[in-house]
Design brief:
InterPro entries: ADH-like_C, ADH-like_N, GroES-like_sf, NAD(P)-bd_dom_sf
Strand content: 25-35%
Distance between the termini: 10 Å
Bound molecules: NADP nicotinamide-adenine-dinucleotide phosphate
Protein name: Zinc-binding dehydrogenase
Keywords: Metal-binding, Oxidoreductase, Zinc
Pfam families: ADH_N (PF08240), ADH_zinc_N (PF00107)
Number of domains: 2
Cofactor: Zn(2+)
Shape: globular
Order of helices and strands: EEEHEEEEEHEEHEHEHEHEHEHEHEHE
Number of helices: 10
CATH architecture of the largest domain: Alpha-Beta Complex
CATH topology of the largest domain: Quinone Oxidoreductase, Chain A, domain 1
Length: about 350
């Protein structure tokens, strides 16, 4: 079958002919219907996001149709359409993303090394062998008109899990910092679908902000100035701020979000910022704030987000889907890197 592989740490992403996966205990084989190509995939391949265990088939998640299951798998069956979340959790912070970079709270251990040896290959392929723990059934998804669009679900689920740590969204004012990225765009859509009173979309890219504004009258936008005080004043006051920023040279935009919170507000961090935050103890205490981190998603959140989509409450037609095939991985990575906001690239075998 055809797959996108990385042979070694210093290799590029390549189109390869590889053997079809064979079933192993605890495994599920899926026919890949579509897989999201994150905007920063090139940085992952070139080592900018931590070590990839090579050689491997790349790909953190997909929408797939189950073709075979091991005898010890009961929650999905051949024919089911599923989301592959890529998240394999052994407990105590030992978590891996199959086919990708990223380790859970333990930061890696002898156990995560063994997990990554057994469950190494990801979803950028015609077929994928997945650990059963990464499979969430999407009931009736076989009737969804454009399954490739569902490849955006993983980002919606990560955003939903982050927002959820701050409690119910209905009637509350939410800000998304980095709304001009794909995670941020997903978060804006999710917050609207869950009844936020207002959603303030914050980012640099004016074109992406304008597209977000078209989602409806509850969306406000703010183009980042880079000045923390000015940005905080324009963003707030909000009850919840979700930070979905990529790697930024300073923590100013994140701290502007902190400053913009109302009393009892919550700042949730899900982005890729690699900066330390200086939290003023007294201010944090007197304003009774909450600071939360959130990583990936959980099965219940996947089901909840899928129900929003299948019921039409969350309409994925607002997202521009750019389909690519296997032939030219380099151009696909370039396209993904240029794609922001309410657009995303999906590999459709
Ligand atoms: N917590 C989790 O479970 C989880 C899961 C998946 C991904 N992530 C993280 O989420 C982050 C965002 O993912 P994505 O797919 O949305 O990436 P993306 O599409 O590349 O978005 C990056 C965002 O960061 C902003 N940004 C980048 N550099 C900036 C700078 N110097 N100053 C201000 N803003 C800057 C961009 O703003 P403009 O477009 O306006 O320039 C954009 O809004 C990634 O870094 C990833 O590590 C976390």
């Amino acid at each position: 079958m055809r797959a996108w592989t990385v042979a070694s740490q210093d290799d590029d992403l390549r189109l390869s002919e590889v053997p079809e996966p064979s079933l192993q205990g605890g495994g599920v084989v899926v026919e890949v219907l579509a897989a999201h190509l994150p905007a920063y995939t090139k940085a992952v391949v070139t080592g900018g996001r931590g070590g990839l265990l090579t050689p491997l088939i790349l790909g953190p998640s997909c929408i797939g149709r189950v073709t075979d299951v091991a005898p010890d798998v009961f929650h999905v069956a051949p024919g089911d359409v599923v989301l592959d979340t890529a998240l394999l959790n052994a407990g105590d912070g030992d978590e891996i993303l199959v086919g990708w970079v990223g380790l859970g709270g333990s930061g890696g251990s002898e156990r995560t090394d063994r997990m990554r040896e057994v469950w190494r290959d990801g979803a950028f392929a015609e077929k994928a062998l997945c650990a059963k723990e990464t499979m969430v059934k999407l009931p009736d998804a076989e009737n969804y008109p454009d399954p490739a669009r569902l490849a955006f679900l993983p980002w919606l689920c990560v955003a939903a899990a982050g927002l959820r740590t701050a409690g119910p969204l209905a009637g509350r004012d939410v800000a998304v910092i980095g709304a001009t990225g794909q995670m941020g765009g997903a978060a804006v859509m999710l917050a609207l679908a869950e009844g936020a009173a207002t959603v303030t979309a914050v980012g640099r890219n004016k074109v992406a902000l304008d597209r977000l504004a078209e989602l409806g009258p509850r969306v406000r936008t703010h183009q980042l100035t880079g000045d923390r005080t000015t940005d905080a004043t324009a963003i707030g006051p909000v009850d919840i701020a979700l930070d979905t920023l990529g790697a930024t040279p300073t923590a100013d935009a994140t701290m502007a979000a902190y400053d913009s919170l109302r009393v009892r507000g919550t700042l949730v961090l899900v982005g890729g910022v690699r900066q330390d935050l200086t939290i003023p103890y007294s201010d944090f205490m007197h304003r009774r704030l909450t600071l939360r981190g959130s990583w990936m998603s959980d099965d219940e959140t996947v089901t909840r987000v899928w129900n929003l989509v299948r019921s039409g409450v969350l309409d994925l037609s607002a997202v521009e889907l750019l389909k690519v095939g296997f032939d030219d991985p380099e151009s696909a990575l370039d396209l993904a890197e240029r794609t922001s906001g309410l657009s995303f690239v999906a590999l459709v075998p």
